[in-house]
Every structure is written in structure tokens, then in C-alpha cells.
């Protein structure tokens, strides 16, 4: 990976940093939306409190790129990064490279987080990481345009969304040629896996591979879900949607050029910022149903301590600090990052900043996990094959039925004698 990685140093006060025993910890942070700044701010608070120093390693935006970079570092047993920010789907893939936090972080503290996320962070009894923030896919919509075109509520089905998006788009295009109905993550990467899994589950098409490890994607409902998504391209979504990640979709919606958007909770706070063209005009709702109920893919990020860190005790302390209740509350208020602690969903300051956190709590607690558990070390190959199949359907290269049939064969090859 040739991409230059910037290192931004965050230091405590000079006097504090010169304390005896002070160490330097390198923390890998994401850079989507406000992630990087909030990560720097939290690290700086810990540095000031402890007298240690933190360097923030700026990771690539796209999860696939970030995983590739991490795997290079870890395979080399590099001590360059002490604390890694890990996607919820990575513990099974990377567990051998991370310190077991069980016993090193008090059980009472661990138990304050959502049980499902702790379970996802636990591999063969080893607590690979601590939950930092959780995610689930949401539908964002323009409240002013809904009212303008006679709609009183968010769409409950994908068919309703298509109808609404087309009507609003056609009306707005009379004065804005770049206006579009619906934007989402259509680029061939992990983000498309997330979006497409929501389509499949909402149509009753399953989760690609079930909990027992059986390949289930070759079915009519999964095919219908893919074909439906393909029908949006060049009708209610621009042709370029097949190149969009989270930030591209957010940029279009936040600039006032889309009626609907699928994205993660972080987009809320940015949409309410002073420079947002849609500030005060955003509604949030569960994603629509394809006939089998609404479905939201479980996302979220966690913090793990590298086995190769030379300062593991300080690194663990940093993880405890950043995943603590005070830091999670700050991140929720300032950046709309969902806490992983159920108690914080009753916090009035958090609910004032993010009204939908309370009303959509069920969306977050019942989000659909990607099949990283049953497919273990082969999940990345499974996800790439799935996203590639969906991408081909959206590009018009094939139809849903043919895509899921071929995908079943491809997944069986990846599975080999077992996951």
C-alpha cells in the first residue's frame, strides 16, 4: 500500500511529558467524518491525565484498505502501532495478534457494554478488543422536501422509497440539475456488503451464510433484492452511486442534493453542523423493508492492544479510558457516535444531541451481523465475493438470479473443506 500515512503527534504538557516512566503510545484511528478529530481529542485528554504521549496513526478511509495495511503491520510483528481500531468483523481474522484483555480489564467494566458486541470481540474465550462505538445502517431523509411533496412519514418499504424519491427528484431537478433521489454506499468494497446485506435480509433472502456455516445466498429473494437495488441506478440514484463510499454519499446529501441517504449514525452530527445546507431539515428512520421487515447491518469499531506493543500496560489503560463512559458520552454528543453502553441511551444530554438514539434503539440492539463469525478467517474473501456479485448486478453485467447462483459456487470454493 503506497498511500502516505500521516502521523499527528498529540502530547501532554511539557512538564507532564517529562515525568519519570512516561511512555509514547501510537493509536490507529479512522478518518471518516469527525472520527479523526474526536480520536485526537480523546487521546490528548488521556495524555494530559497520565503524562504519557500519544501519536495518532491516520488510517485509510475505506475499511478494506485499512485491513490490508493492518495485516501488513501485524504479519511483520511490527511494534509501530500499540492500539488498533478494529472493525466489528475483524476479531476472528486478527485475534492471534492481540492481547487478551480478559482479566486485564475488570469484568464489571466489560459487563457495562452490550453483550452482543463483547461476544463479537471474544474469540475462543479471548477478549480481543473493547467496544468503542457501535453502528447500524439508517435512512436519512429531507423533512422539508417530504412536506413539500405531500409525504407525512418516512417510507416503510423500498417500493415506497423509490416512488417518493422519483417524485421529489423530478420536482427538484426543475431548478437543480444535479439533484438526485437516493444515495448510498454502492462502491465495490465492505460498505456495499453492509448495504446489500440489509437489502437481502429485508427481502427475506438470508445472510449469505447462516450461523451454522451453510451457504444460503442462492435463493429467489436474494436475487430480487439485488435486482431491486440495480433498478435504482440511473433512475433514483446517479450512475456514479456505484463509486460512492460513506463520505461521497454524505457529501451529496449534506450539500442539499439528495432526498434520501443510507448511512451510519455519524452523518447526523455533521448534517447539523453550521456549514451544512440541510441543517434542521434531516429526519432519521429505520431502513425500508422488502417484505420481510426492516434490517440494519451491525457496524461499529473496537480498540485492541497489539501483542507486539512494547508498552502494553499503558496501551490497555488508554483503551480503558477511550471506551469509558465519559469518553463515549462526549463522542455521542459531539459526533453522534453510538455508545456501546446501554446505560448511556438514557442520558438526557445524549438524547438531546441525537433524538433518534432513543426512538431507534431497537435498530441498534437488533442489527444484523455480517457472517464473520461462521466464516472466520475466510470472511474477507466471502465479503469480497458478495460485494463483487452485487456490484456486477448493479452495473448491469448480470441479473440477480445468475449472480446468486454463481456466488454460491464461488463461496463453496472459498469454503473448501470448511471455514
TrEMBL record:
- SUPFAM superfamilies reported in the protein's UniProt record: Periplasmic binding protein-like II
Residues annotated as signal peptide = 1-22
Which Pfam family name is an example for this entry? SBP_bac_1
Task: Spell out the InterPro entries in the cross-references.
Answer: Bact_solute-bd_prot1 (IPR050490), SBP (IPR006059)
List keywords of the entry alphabetically. Answer: Signal, Transport
Q: Which domain of life is it from?
A: Bacteria
UniProt record similarity statement: Belongs to the bacterial solute-binding protein 1 family.
Which PANTHER family does UniProt cross-reference here? ABC TRANSPORTER PERIPLASMIC-BINDING PROTEIN YCJN-RELATED, ARABINOSE-BINDING PROTEIN-RELATED
**What protein am I looking at?**
Maltose/maltodextrin ABC transporter, substrate binding periplasmic protein MalE
Q: What is the originating organism of this protein?
A: Deinococcus marmoris
Amino acid at each position: 500500500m503506497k498511500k502516505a500515512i500521516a502521523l499527528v503527534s498529540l502530547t501532554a504538557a511539557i512538564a507532564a511529558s517529562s515525568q519519570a516512566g512516561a511512555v509514547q503510545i501510537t493509536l490507529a484511528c479512522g478518518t471518516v467524518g469527525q472520527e479523526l478529530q474526536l480520536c485526537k481529542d480523546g487521546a490528548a485528554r488521556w495524555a494530559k491525565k497520565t503524562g504519557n504521549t500519544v501519536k495518532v496513526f491516520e488510517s485509510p478511509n475505506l475499511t478494506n484498505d485499512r485491513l490490508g495495511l493492518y495485516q501488513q503491520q501485524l504479519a511483520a510483528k511490527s511494534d509501530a502501532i500499540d492500539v488498533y481500531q478494529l472493525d466489528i468483523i475483524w476479531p476472528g481474522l486478527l485475534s492471534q495478534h492481540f492481547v487478551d484483555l480478559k482479566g486485564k480489564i475488570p469484568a464489571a467494566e466489560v459487563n457495562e457494554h452490550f453483550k452482543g458486541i463483547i461476544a463479537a470481540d471474544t474469540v475462543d474465550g479471548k477478549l480481543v478488543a473493547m467496544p468503542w462505538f457501535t453502528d447500524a445502517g439508517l435512512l436519512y431523509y429531507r423533512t422539508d422536501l417530504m412536506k413539500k411533496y405531500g409525504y407525512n412519514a418516512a417510507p416503510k418499504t423500498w417500493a415506497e422509497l423509490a416512488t417518493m424519491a422519483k417524485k421529489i427528484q423530478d420536482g427538484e431537478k426543475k431548478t437543480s440539475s444535479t439533484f438526485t433521489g437516493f444515495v448510498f454506499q454502492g462502491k465495490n468494497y465492505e460498505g456495499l456488503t453492509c448495504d446489500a446485506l440489509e437489502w437481502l435480509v429485508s427481502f427475506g433472502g438470508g445472510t449469505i451464510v447462516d450461523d451454522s456455516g451453510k451457504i444460503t445466498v442462492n435463493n429467489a429473494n436474494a436475487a430480487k433484492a439485488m435486482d431491486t437495488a440495480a433498478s435504482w441506478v440511473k433512475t433514483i440514484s446517479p450512475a456514479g452511486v456505484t463509486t460512492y463510499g460513506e463520505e461521497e454519499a454524505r457529501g451529496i446529501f449534506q450539500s442539499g442534493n439528495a432526498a434520501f441517504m443510507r448511512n451510519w449514525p455519524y452523518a447526523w452530527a455533521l448534517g447539523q453542523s453550521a456549514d451544512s445546507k440541510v441543517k434542521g431539515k434531516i429526519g432519521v428512520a429505520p431502513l425500508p423493508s422488502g417484505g420481510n421487515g426492516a434490517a440494519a447491518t451491525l457496524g461499529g469499531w473496537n480498540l485492541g492492544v497489539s501483542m507486539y506493543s512494547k508498552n502494553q500496560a499503558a496501551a490497555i489503560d488508554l483503551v480503558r479510558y477511550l471506551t469509558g463512559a465519559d469518553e463515549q458520552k462526549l463522542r455521542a454528543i459531539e459526533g453522534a457516535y453510538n455508545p456501546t453502553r446501554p446505560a448511556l441511551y438514557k442520558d438526557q444530554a445524549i438524547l438531546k444531541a441525537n433524538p433518534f438514539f432513543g426512538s431507534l434503539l431497537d435498530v441498534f440492539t437488533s442489527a444484523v451481523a455480517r457472517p464473520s463469525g461462521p466464516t472466520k478467517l475466510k470472511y474477507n474473501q466471502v465479503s469480497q465475493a458478495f460485494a463483487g456479485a452485487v456490484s456486477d448486478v448493479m452495473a448491469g453485467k448480470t441479473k440477480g438470479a445468475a449472480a446468486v447462483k454463481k456466488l454460491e459456487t464461488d463461496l463453496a470454493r472459498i469454503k473448501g473443506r470448511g471455514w
